[in-house]
Amino acid sequence: MVAPAALRVVRCGGGGRLCGARPVFSADAKYLLCASGDFVKMYSLGTGETLRLMGGHADLVTGVQLNPRNHMQLYSSSLDGSIKLWDFMDGIPIKTFTVGCKLLALYALASCEDSVFVITPKSGERDTFQLVSVKLTKAAGQDIEAKDLSVVLDGVDVSPKCTAFGREGEYVASVKDVNLQVYFFKRKLLNRFSVNAMKTKGGIHYFTCVVCHPTEDCIATGHADGKIRLWYVNFHHKREYTFSTLHWHHDFVLDLAFSMEGTSLLSGGVESVLVLWQNLSDRQKDFLPRLGSAIEYISVSPDGSLCCTLHADNRITIINSNLRLSRSIQGLIKSTDVKTGLVVDPRTKALVLNGEPGHLQFYCLQSDQQLFSLDIVQRQYIHQAGLKQVDLVKVAFSAQGKWLATVEEREEVTDPELQLKLWFYDEETQSFKLNTIINTPHDDHITDMCFRDMDEMEDDSLILVTTGRDCVFKVWVIVEDTDPEAQQSVSWSCDFVGSYHNYQATNCCFSEDGSLLAVSFEGTVTVWDSLTWDLKCTFCHPPGKIRNICFGRLTCSKYLIGATDHGFLCCWNLLSCALEWSAHLNILVLQPDPLSEHIAAVSWLSKESSLFVFKPNEPRPIYIQRNLCKEKIQLAAFVPRDEPETTDSEKYLWLRRSQLFFLTDTQELMTLSTKSLEERLTPSSKQLAVEESLPVTPFSLLLGKHRRQQSQEDTDLGKLVIHNKQEQDSPAVKELLHTPAHVLPSASFLCPIFIKSLLISKENKSAEEVADEVEMESEKAEDDSDEERDVTEMEQEDTSPSKLLGEITCKLSKYQEKELRKIRKMDYSWISAF
Amino acid sequence: MAAYKPVVVQAFPKLGEKITQDTLYWRGYKTPVQIKEFGAVNKIHFSPVLPYNYAVTASSRIHIYGRYSQEPIKTFSRFKDAAYCATYRDDGNLLVAGSEEGSIRLFDVSGRAPLRQFDGPTKAVHVVGFLSDKYRIFSGGDDYSSSLWDIPNGTEIISYSEHTDYVRCGCASKVNADVFITGSYDHTVKLFDARTKSSVMTIEHGHPVESVLLFQSGGLLVSAGGRYVKVWDILKGGQLLVSLKNHHKTVTCLCLNSSGQRLLSGSLDRHVKIYSTTSYKVVHSFNYATSILSLALSPEDETIVVGMTNGVLNVKHRKPEERKEESQKKRQPAYRTYVKGRTYMPKQEDFCVSKPIKRVLRKYDKLLKSFQSSKALDAVLEPPIRLHTPEVTVAVMQELHRRGTLRSALAGRDEKQINLLLTFVARRVIEPRFTPVLITVADMIADIYQPVVGQSAIVDRQFLKLQEAIGKEIDYQEELLEVLGMMDTLFATFTEKSAAYPEENKSNGLTETVETNRNN
Fold first, then answer.
1. CATH value of A161-331 in 1.10.1060.10, 2.60.40.350, 3.50.50.60, 2.130.10.10
2. Nearest chain A CA: its distance from B363 CA (Å)
3. Degrees (nearest 5) of the Cα angle A820, A821, A822?
4. Distance CA A614, CA A621 (A)
5. Reported pTM
6. A494 vs B contacts (CB less than 8 Å)
7. Which of B369, B402, B514 best probes binding to A when mutated, by most A CB atoms within 10 angstroms?
8. Record: contact A443-B506, CB cut-off 8 A
9. What ipTM does the predicted assembly reach?
10. What is the pLDDT of residue A802?
């Protein structure tokens, strides 16, 4: 690559939203494949780890399906108009079929040879979509044009959930608004239905999703009023459909799934409760409540042992067949609104932002994993649309990460319910512990909050400042409790309340050494001495209110930077109390780098965001990146790198020690990187194995395992037998077996020899031991009977006499030698007789 | 899947007095017994020996009371005018008292007529006492003199005329038989040694000295005069250790408890304060009906006797140690049920099925978990929760409000239940910690049951009560705001920067209250 390559904007957080398509289990239910932004992600179900990230599509992936004829292969469709065939075990694309128009959903059927079904927009008409079958030719080569399209159904819904294929691909069911249409392939028959004709007790009852029974002629549809209807298709009378209703959900039914045998139905919705309808009846249902957020997709593994739910907040939950939670796969949880901003935890260097409702997620950027989720609100979250619930709005860490301050609020008509909580990091449990709760710290919303950032003085002079729309800023300090019986020794209390002309306080910021506090009140920035709380000076840049303020750092600590909502970026000198420079820029985000004097500012002008990096002491920016992205950038954060990156380019020096991350208003986390995508994706070298032969049923799986085990045992035994044979292949046994019975000596004589020959000797080692024994014995006891020794020596001779003797002779005394000689002279010819 | 999170009940820091060991100890007295004396009680002294009778000097009589008697068991009334300062000797056999006419009389406790009468002082003798060798008596009188008397001879040994005003208090050292101190209205406390011709130490108290006290060790001296109680170190030559100003009227009497760990002071401001002698902080205080003149504590702190200016003697006895009734011990499962199976170590091939930990939820939590709002509200309106832990009731109401089901939970109730709800709201709505939630509740109740107003007398009465409570609260808040405004003007007049005054309890949702009021 050419040396100073342009910085590129890279999505991080492992690709993007998972909600593009229904996830797919691999045939052996070991891996899970799902669409994630422009990528197809493969997770291991055992560990929850991301195994593969298959990239190649130029736009969002909209459908993922296993190849019905080869379960090692995968089809994926994308908005860029191509269908790709992957070998997902190795993560290589095999073929690319270019269709040419946007593909919004993908279906693959076992019964349809070499063709797949896709949903495409109808050419010429807006907002009408059709189900199209695409013939995938078996031509050679990587890139193939697939132009052989045939329309199956017209006027289908854009959502992939609204079309489903029935038993063995005999028919296709599709729903749109209040209409259900079923098309039979063989008879080329189209049946239309609408729920409009039926009586409904008010409420919205249009369709939200449809699934087909795997073995019977039954279609299940979900409705917006929370009902599930089961339609029984009668082939003989073409317009007679009977249906039954299941009702538990009180809001949209977002997805349905039949179990593999079709005996039960799973449904999920906004309530984030997974409902299992046993035997498709209303009588018996099981629940798995409190799954965290709305269930978008449900899919069931081919062997029926697992199912997984994909949630609206980018999380996958794996659930056992007996409705027990097995695992949760979560990367960056996308909450609807990141109110807390992007904050970096000084301890773990993790990115901290809103996670699940009421939780704070600590997201590790390196491993793309959620480190942990801290429950801040500690209240039951009710999953119900339109309910105002307590939400986390502000977060601040002290410099060392020892204290964490959080603000939660609940919108109310009269006055908001506010709580300021202070958490202390407990070294023992390695987690944050609640220290103080302050109810209604301000009378109105809290707009900003910051700790005095002083590394060396953290303990005694830690100060928290909150600014509120009630026109005051408050200073909170630690007070030590003198009462020895109190449970905790420190708590927080208000120390000072400051205000300025009854203007709303909007931002606050401490200077680097902590001596000055800048608080912006609408259009004015006030600077306060943090020791005496005296107002030192004020700055303003009319017209317009102050949107952001920050102090310069290190060599630029005498400057104060502010951005107004009238499109000015100003830099004031604190020593001369004068405006140093100003620039006409509509700055949305102002973010100082904690490790250097650089400040990043993101501007929004005519539908594009631009990034400016500058030092406060010179008005010329160091780096400008125009057209950062099309979306509005909401938040940004500098994350310190573990080791400084080595860049030779002067231009990117500001990226050396920390990395800039930013979050767009569509909740995409992006970063700037000099490396290309290929370098960033570290290919996993793991060899993945998928079982070639698949068991047909769970029973056969069980049986197969059993059998395999047995056969393995057999082979093991066989080995053992062979092993023994080698050992026992002694001439003694051979002789015994081959000599005629009438020649053999008496059984009582043969028996001990035979048994002895069956014993497995320990070869050399045992022989040595025996030899030692001999030595000892010979040393201590001369009066031992010769016969006894003879027996031991006999054994020696049996195993490896020559080596043994050599060893022994070098050590033995004369007497022993004599003895040995005596033994050697003895006649062993009777053994050879066997 | 996250487990169900129970309703968070807000814990509020406890306001007011903290309960310490001291408060528990000093609260352990029965309701006082009041005995009417003939005049102001100027001295109470406990006999140092069993049965701890006490001599009460009031007007011209000395009454001896038994421990639990409400009538005097003995009376010495041979005084023409007021008697002063009847004091027991260490062995409890003799009693000495001064008098208005100037004579000092020595009584045998079992006899009636005085054993000795020391005539000499021409003016009233307000303080007498035994030295610790038991054979000498010291006295101080209105003739400014402090004298020492010999009991066997009945003669004066020495007389010091160093004070320049009335001598009104004194105390003998328990360590040295020759040392005694007297306090005078000339603002000084003087320490005398019987072996020398003049005082050995003079301490300036700064106010007319009403009472002096020596610690058992003899090293520390406590003097009371004016509003001050001062502690002096005699061994350091009379250095002031600490000056206590906890009363707002003259301190008249001092007393140590039996262990010497606590110092008691009684004052004309009707309070008895108890100090710790290590930190000299007030650890407890008693209130009395009238100004206190004298105070005594029996050995073992069994009885506190306080004499008042209106002649009332207030006697408090310690409650007998409560024998905790061994409550019927619950039959607990045998030990073996706990250890059963606990010691089993699973083998490697064993498949462990862990037993799910059963979480015990409160009744209202169970109901909330299954979204039964009305029943949950019913559960927290049960008497034990409603009366003893109103914060739980309010927390559940708040939770229901968050879930948007408060209205339906409140609706559809009969007369009895509305009555209950309204009683609760009317009673608690003025508590600042409950106000925001209960205002909403009151609002909703008024909204829901507006059509039925006038159908039930009970409910109507409750509505009126609620209105009254809210009206009172509004008046109170207005007053508070006025005070706040006054304080603001005061602060504004300060030229130097004043520290930020703490957050005042601003009227919470005043407009809301008015609205509710109107609804009624």
1. 2.130.10.10
2. 16
3. 90
4. 4
5. 0.69
6. 502-503
7. B402
8. yes
9. 0.74
10. 45
